[in-house]
Design goal:
This protein is of the alpha/beta class. It folds into two domains: 99 residues, Enolase-like, domain 1 (2-Layer Sandwich), CATH 3.30.390.10; 233 residues, Alpha-Beta Barrel (TIM Barrel), CATH 3.20.20.120. The protein is built from eleven helices and 13 strands. Strands 4, 5, 6, 7, 8, 9, 10, 11, 12 and 13 form a ten-stranded mixed β-sheet that branches. A hairpin with a 2-residue loop joins strand 12 and strand 13. Helix 2 runs antiparallel to helix 3 and helix 7 runs parallel beside helix 8. The chain is globular. It starts with a strand and ends in a 38-residue tail after the last strand. 48% of the residues are buried. The mean pLDDT is 97. Bound molecules: magnesium ion. Magnesium ion binds next to loops. The site of magnesium ion has 4 residues, from loops.
Length: 372
C-alpha cells in the first residue's frame, strides 16, 4: 500500500488531515498545535513531498526519517507528524478491520474516565457549576481557581480568592469527588508554593501547570516544596522532554497530547517511560471529535491512563463532520470497537464550518505589563 495524497482541512477551530492510499483506504488525523494551525497546515503540505509514495505502515521509520533528517525539531513539525501518524495508524487498523487499540496491545479498559470543567465568576457560580456536573454523573472535576480579573489583582488577593474558590467547590460537592486544579501556567514559583500549601487540606487530585513550561528546573524547585501532585507536559512535543520531566521526579502525571507529541507511535513510548516510574498519563485533549476518537484508542491501550477532558464529546459542534460521535456515560467515554480511530470524517460537511483562527491578544497586569 502507498500514500497517494495528503489533504489538510482547517475546520472551525481544528486542523484535520486525511491521508489517501492507492488501495482506497483513507486515514483520518488531527493536529494539536491549536494556537498556530495555519503554520501546521503549511507544514503538512510541505511534508507531503516526503510522505506521498511511501508505505503508510512504517510509522516509526517515517517519524525517524523526518525528525532526524535535519534536526530542526519543534512543535509545528511535531504537530504535523502527529496528525499523519494518527492517520497512518487509522489506515493500518482499517486494513485489518480492527480498532487501533487492538494493534497497540489490546484494551486495558472498556471506558475512559473524563472530568468536567467547573466555571463561574463568583463563588456561588463555581459551587453551582460543580453541583451541576456531579448531577450529570461526573465524579471528577477540574477548575481554574482564579476569577477572570485575577491578572489585574495583587498576588495576595489572587491566592486568597483561589483558596476561597476551592473551598466553595469542596463545600458544595463534598470530599468524595475528585478535584483537580488547572493553574494554566499563571503563577511564579513563589506564588505556586504558597498557594499549594494553603490548598493542602482540600484533597487536590492534581496541580496542573503551576508554571510556564519553559524550565523543568524551576518546576523541580516547586515540586520539592509542595505536597500536591503536579501534572504538566501539554506543550511538550518530544520523548526526551517527557523523560527529563519524569526522571527529575517533578510530576505525578504527565499530559502528552497525542496530536502534538508524536501520535500513537511516540506517545505509546512516552506512556511506557511514565509507567516505569509509576507516573500516570493524563493526556491533554483539545480539538474536534476526530481527536477525541483518536485519543480514546490510545487511552484504552495504556495501563497508566488516568483521565482527560470530556471535550463536549456528546455536544461538540463538529460532531456534524463525523459519521458517529462517541458516547459519554456517567463520566466515562465508552471505547468503540469500530475499525481505526472509530470515526470517519465526512468531507462534504466540512465547508459548513469555516476556519476560526485564534488571534494573539495578550493578558495584562494592572500596570500594563504582560501577565501570562
Ligand atoms: Mg492545561
Amino acid at each position: 500500500m502507498k500514500i497517494e495524497r495528503i489533504t489538510p482541512f482547517l475546520v472551525g477551530r481544528s486542523l484535520l488531515v486525511r491521508v489517501y492510499t492507492d488501495q482506497g483506504i483513507v486515514g483520518n488525523g488531527e493536529a494539536g498545535l491549536w494556537a498556530h494551525h495555519r503554520l501546521v497546515y503549511e507544514a503538512l503540505r510541505d511534508l507531503s513531498e516526503y510522505y506521498v509514495g511511501k508505505d503508510p505502515g512504517r510509522m516509526e521509520h517515517h517519524f525517524q526519517v523526518v525528525s532526524r533528517n535535519t534536526h530542526f525539531a519543534g512543535a509545528v513539525l511535531s504537530a504535523a507528524m502527529s496528525a499523519l501518524d494518527i492517520a497512518m495508524w487509522d489506515i493500518l487498523a482499517k486494513s485489518v478491520d480492527k480498532p487501533i487499540y487492538a494493534l497497540l496491545g489490546g484494551k486495558c479498559r472498556d471506558k475512559v474516565k473524563v472530568f468536567a470543567n467547573v466555571g463561574g465568576n463568583t463563588l456561588d457560580e463555581r459551587a453551582a457549576s460543580a453541583v451541576r456536573n456531579v448531577e450529570r454523573g461526573f465524579t471528577s472535576l477540574r477548575t481554574t481557581p482564579f476569577f477572570s480579573d485575577a491578572p489585574r489583582k495583587d498576588s495576595s488577593k489572587v491566592i486568597k480568592e483561589a483558596v476561597q474558590i476551592v473551598a466553595a467547590i469542596r463545600d458544595a460537592v463534598g470530599d468524595e469527588i475528585d478535584l483537580g486544579l488547572e493553574i494554566h501556567r499563571n503563577l511564579m514559583p513563589d506564588e505556586a508554593i504558597i498557594l499549594a500549601h494553603e490548598l493542602a487540606p482540600y484533597r487536590i487530585l492534581y496541580y496542573e501547570d503551576p508554571l510556564a513550561p519553559e524550565s523543568i528546573e524551576a518546576l523541580e524547585y516547586v515540586a520539592r516544596h509542595v505536597d500536591l501532585p503536579i501534572a504538566t507536559g501539554e506543550r511538550f512535543y518530544s520523548i526526551q522532554q517527557f523523560k527529563e520531566l519524569i526522571d527529575k521526579k517533578t510530576v505525578a502525571m504527565i499530559r502528552p497530547d497525542l496530536s502534538l507529541a508524536g501520535g500513537y507511535t511516540q506517545c505509546k513510548k512516552i506512556a511506557g517511560l511514565a509507567e516505569a516510574s509509576f507516573v500516570g498519563v493524563f493526556p491533554h485533549l483539545m480539538g474536534s471529535p476526530v481527536n477525541i476518537a483518536a485519543f480514546v484508542q490510545f487511552d484504552a491501550a495504556i495501563p497508566n491512563f488516568r483521565l482527560h477532558e470530556s471535550n463536549m464529546v456528546d455536544n461538540h459542534p463538529l460532531n456534524e463532520v463525523i459519521d458517529q460521535p462517541l458516547t459519554l456515560e456517567n463520566g466515562y467515554i465508552l471505547v468503540p470497537d469500530r475499525p481505526g480511530i472509530g470515526v470517519e470524517i465526512l468531507e462534504d460537511k466540512l465547508a459548513r464550518f469555516p476556519f476560526q483562527p485564534r488571534s494573539i491578544e495578550g493578558t495584562f497586569h494592572a500596570d500594563g505589563s504582560v501577565a501570562w
